[in-house]
Amino acid sequence: MSFDVIDFLESLFKLTVADYLRQVFGVPEWIIDVVQIFILATFLLLNVLILIWLERKLISRFQDRIGPNRVGGRYGLLQSVADALKMLTKEFITPSGADRIAYNLAPFIIVVSALLMWAVIPFAPGVVGTDLNVGLFYILAVSSISVVALLLAGWGSNNKYALLGAFRSVAQLVSYEVPMVLALLIPIMLAGSMSLQRIVYAQEVWYILVVPLSAIIFLISALAELGRTPFDLLEAESEIVAGYHIEYSGMKWGMFMMSEFINAFFMSALFTTIYLGGWRGPGAVEYPLLGLVYFSIKTFLILFVLIWIRGTFPRVRIDQLLNFNWKFLVPITLVLIMAVALIVKLLPDDVSSWVLAAVLFMANLAIGLGALEIFRRSAHRQRQAVEAARNPGTAPVAGTSPEAHSAPASAH
Amino acid sequence: MTVQQVVFIIISAFTLLSAVIVVTDRNLFRSAIALMASFLGVAGLYILLDAGFLAVAQIIVYIGAISILIIFAIMMTRRMMQTVESPFNPRPISGAIAAVGVCALLIFIAVSTWPDVEAANVSDIVLRGSVSQMGRFLVSPDAYVIPFEVASVLLLAALIGAVAIARPEKDS
Amino acid sequence: MLSDWQFILLFSVIALVFPGAPILIAQLINPKKPNPIKQSTYECGVETVGDTWIQFKVQYYIFALVFVVFDVEAVFLFPIAAAFNQLALFAVMEIILFVVILLVALGYVWRKGALEWF
């Protein structure tokens, strides 16, 4: 076959460029892989600039102000470019006594692990980096590696505050990995595979409609894993200064910020893939480009939700954060796993997926409301105990009282 | 020299080098990091052996959980930055005898069985390496369900034991 | 199946370029004026007093410990979940037994007060 521009454009439209190039030029597989990786990684890095601008604009609108509006026209479109250029010209101030290898390795590892997770996300039917049969498991492994990067950064800085910040970060990340991992078990059970492409194919009914509680738990744990509000106490100005990246300056610090945004975008993409049907939509199978469009729309929607949450909720203290995780999220997720497993097996095999979806939805609702009720009662009892201790001899106040500040935000 | 062999040599060298650093480095924290690196190398070796699930499980459990536990334990029992120790054993003679003995045993085993080893007659099911196969084996009564349930009891026991030892004292 | 992982290997090698390039560019064009005051470790504006030593709370260790247990549990549950479609009802009972034992473990740790962050 010889190269034909029309055919090439058609393959671009059908997202089969790799096959076309292989047919025409006989390009070996690994070169195509390299090009794909370059395109993906470059897109992700440039996307970070867009995301930073988007977040700043949205947050400022939520806070009733305008946000960047000088650099690059009326909407400040080039603001992040200007910030990136500024960061490039800042000096690398290495603290004295820092462990060279650990200090310099940490920004690399954290960005590489943020990028590596994208290798298994399906963007359109037939378009996926590599469809590992342990795709979802692989994603968890790579996020474990980014935890290591945190420790390297904290310890390599030769600063006890950085080290302490790193430990607190690790405690938070490691705690919230448990409900995330357990919540992800449920879509795997429903789809019968850990491969992300198969999970998308299995979603005749989007899983957010089938197991909404699992989606909510995943979203909350993802927020904590990303270190975003309401779980961003490690970046707060009043907390242990800047945490584990306090001794980094210029572009090395920029790497930490970049990994944070890539991770936020990734969690949105993962949520879309697992719970919102990924690239699914009317006409996505015949026209793969449409699949890509649907995927992007859904991902940005979830990203908007993440930014919205940031603009809405107050920050949570670290003891509230850990209590919420181990005493509320983990038990409820375990109960949910058992309930879903039981229901799926108790219903007859040939029941339609919509009926199954409806039953599971009801069960999720019941478990969620039941858990909230139990939690509210126990919080009420705690409040009464505190009241009784403070005013001995006064009868405890029965009936409703305004929610105490110590109740975690998502219980409302 | 196929690509696979080159990759194998690189990964093995990386693993062995990290293992040497674990044992000889004076700074405890650095040896913990080298331990993580050697776990990563082992995961790479699992991938080369077509055991994808095992490699990923290795990373999640060993690097993501156990190494962090080890680092926290180091931090808890040493002053924060004062983690420098002498890496060498105070009893070199008995250590040397033990090391030479183990090495001789391993060499003997390898040499005596190597010429007769042939590729094992592995059934097709195992070679296709399906994760759902493993899942089915883990819960089927004539396969591994007993070890599976015993594992949960073991985890319960480990947690109870560790909490009993490490529990924070009730503040006076 | 090995070819799947080849992609990952290629990806990790190439992905090293992407943090490397900005850092390299920055290294080439940024000023280099080291002086001992700039390079002293940050301590909220005051000089470092004494060794770098702080009390390490045992809570960190306990949370890491509980995490190890639940991580191993998750590693067991993943292949079972992947095979879920082909399992009988009896298998669900076994799963429930497994999860209940670990809920008991969590309950024990909770009761013993080891989940408090002081």
Architecture overview:
The complex is a heterotrimer of chains A (412), B (172) and C (118). Chain A is 67% helix and 1% strand. The model of chain A is unreliable at 399-412 (pLDDT under 50). The longest helix of chain A has 38 residues, at 353-390. Chain A has 14 helices and two strands, in the order H-H-H-H-H-E-E-H-H-H-H-H-H-H-H-H. Chain A has 412 residues and is mainly α. In chain A, helix 6 packs antiparallel against helix 7. Chain B is mainly α and 172 residues long. In chain B, helix 1 packs antiparallel against helix 2 and helix 2 (28-48) packs antiparallel against helix 3 (52-77). The mean pLDDT of chain B is 83. With 118 residues, chain C is mainly alpha-helical. Chain C has five helices and no strands. In chain C, helix 4 packs antiparallel against helix 5. At the A-C interface, helix 3, helix 5, helix 7, helix 11 and helix 13 of A face helix 1, helix 2, helix 3, helix 4 and helix 5 of C.
Topology of this protein?
The complex is a heterotrimer of chains A (412), B (172) and C (118).
Chain A: H1 5-13, H2 17-25, H3 29-62, H4 79-88, H5 100-116, E1 122-124, E2 127-128, H6 135-156, H7 160-191, H8 196-201, H9 207-210, H10 212-226, H11 250-275, H12 288-312, H13 318-346, H14 353-390
Antiparallel strand pairs in A: 1-2
Chain B: H1 3-24, H2 28-48, H3 52-77, H4 92-113, H5 124-127, H6 131-139, H7 145-166
Chain C: H1 2-15, H2 17-29, H3 36-39, H4 58-82, H5 89-111
The backbone outline of chain C, from C-alpha atoms, is: flat
The topology string of helices and strands of chain B comes to HHHHHHH
The largest chain-to-chain contact, stated as pair and per-chain residue counts, equals:
A-C, 81 and 71 residues
> By CATH's scheme, which homologous superfamily of the largest domain in chain B applies?
NADH-ubiquinone/plastoquinone oxidoreductase chain 6, subunit NuoJ
Low-pLDDT windows of residues of chain C:
none
Order of helices and strands of chain C: HHHHH
Largest pleated sheet of chain C: none
What's the quick description here?
The complex is a heterotrimer of chains A (about 400), B (about 170) and C (about 120). Helix content of chain A is about 65%, strand content about 0%. Chain A is mainly α and about 400 residues long.
